[in-house]
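Appendix B, record 7
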Amino acid sequence: MKGGKIRGAAPGGPGGRGPGPGHGAALEKPKSVRKTLLTLWDHLGRRKGLVILAFLMVLINIVASLAGTAYLEPIIDEFLQPANGDLSLESRLAGLLHGLIVLGVIYAVSAAAAYVQMRVMISVTQRTIRDIRGELFDHLQTLPVRYYDSRTHGEMMSRFTNDVDTLNDALQNSLLSLLSSVITFAGILGLMLWRSLLLTAVTLLMAPVMFLILSKIMKASSKYFVAQQKNLGAVNGHIEEIMTGQKVVKSFCYEERAEEEFHRRNEALRKVAVTAQTFAGTMMPLSRNLNTINYALVAAIGGILTIGGSLTVGALVVFLNLAQQFGRPINEATSQYNAIITAVAGAERIFEVIGERPEEEDGPDSYGLEKEGESFYWSRGEERIPVMGDVRFHNVTFGYVPEKTVLKDLSLFARPGEKIAFVGSTGAGKTTIINLLTRFYEIEEGSITIDGIDLRQIRRDDLRRSMSVVLQDTHLFTGTVRENIRYGNLEAGDEAVEAAARLAGAHSFIRRLPQGYDTLIEGDGANLSQGQRQLLNIARAAVADAPILILDEATSSVDTRTEARIQKGLSRLMEDRTTFVIAHRLSTVRDAEAILVLEQGQVVERGSHQALLEQKGRYYELYTGAAELD
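Structure tokens (predicted):
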């Protein structure tokens, strides 16, 4: 929730699983099922041997189960109601016992195959999901800042929650269940044809009716389940935004409006969920009743055939058993339909992110950053250029979107060791200059050089290592205070960490924490004040010890007294470093060698504090209060 603005939840926000088929992910049907399934198979194919083993276990399970059903016929006809009346009671009992043992072995094989299938598929699924989740996270680290700026937090988190969870369920349960249903149906149909063509024809008379009714229900239910998940995402997204923005909500007395909005969304979810679950709840009893009618019809005709002598009792029992099972694989397949569709849609959304173009790779002849003693160098092969911090913008034009230019033919320079301050109205382009300097965004026209080297000829990671950045928005990670400061330089020792904290003016308050530098920070520093979080942010930049320093509203979150204290530390930090400062408090930039006044993406004034006051231009108006930074 930026700037206190309470926004509507974007579809696809993180949330819990919804009930019924298709819970947890897709907001729309997949755009390209074939492409998504091929990509998914590429991941499953990494464990092709285990997948083939699981498939073989499915076949063994089905074959054994059907064989057990078929084996009932000889047991009944030969030992329970034998056509040959000459068999003695002892022979019949011995034969029955042998038959039951064989039947037990068959079903034991079926149960063992089902168990192995389950274990193998769990292993395959969890390893595949681990790989996909890891690939998704790793790829997100390579994407440019532009990608994150154009998407909501909830939208990104839904890839790791709803989409991954739904895919996990489908791979572990729905996929093999669907495959098993198809094979089982084919096996049952084959056995029925083998036993009686007439009874099979009678059974199949009901199949077209069943397929027609169930297909219409599936088509209608699919639409409502998609709508249910869309509304679920909206509800969960709204909850997340309101919970994370409670201070803003309470500050502006937004509670009643938030409740109204939640209940509106919640009621919309209830309505569509009722319809979706009604359709889902209708499928099973309807198909069961149709199967019952079909079973009764087959039993009646089969009984007549048995009395007439064209069918044995054992054959009738087996056929009735098969007829009873006939609708089961159809029901199971239809019940997995929505789960498969939403899982494929979720996988498609995951693979779309993984397929996003990462930041451009650095060229093979790019400059790197080296440190020798206390000095830094740009290096390329045998060439070594001292890092002086001479930064120049040459006729730079840039816009975040094509239809709106933010910087227009901008040129500026910062000499080595100078402190350059940017002031101007909101939207004038101050932060954009920093975004381009750090290569969070790439320029469209013109060029930016450091020590005479075009930024695009410097490896991106090395360029950013050459800069210590203190952003306006503080962010602390779960871990100790020491670990959060060390984030600026992972190789820094405890002494360097504490020295950086002293430099930033954070050492005194850290010592007063329950465990000092080993105090655990959670919830983005919820147990610290905003000013304390910013002090740690500054200490993190100090421990990086980079030759260029960027301060983007670095003291905006601290009071005047704290600001005066950390300004002393910042002054020591800025010594012999080229420093860029963005500030709304003009009092913090008075000692800058050059103050650049920006308006509408262009530099309208440049000079020292005193020189600009003497000009009595835009800076003078801002400083004296004749104009405001709006």
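Remarks on this record: The radius of gyration is 36 Å. The longest helix spans residues 255-307.
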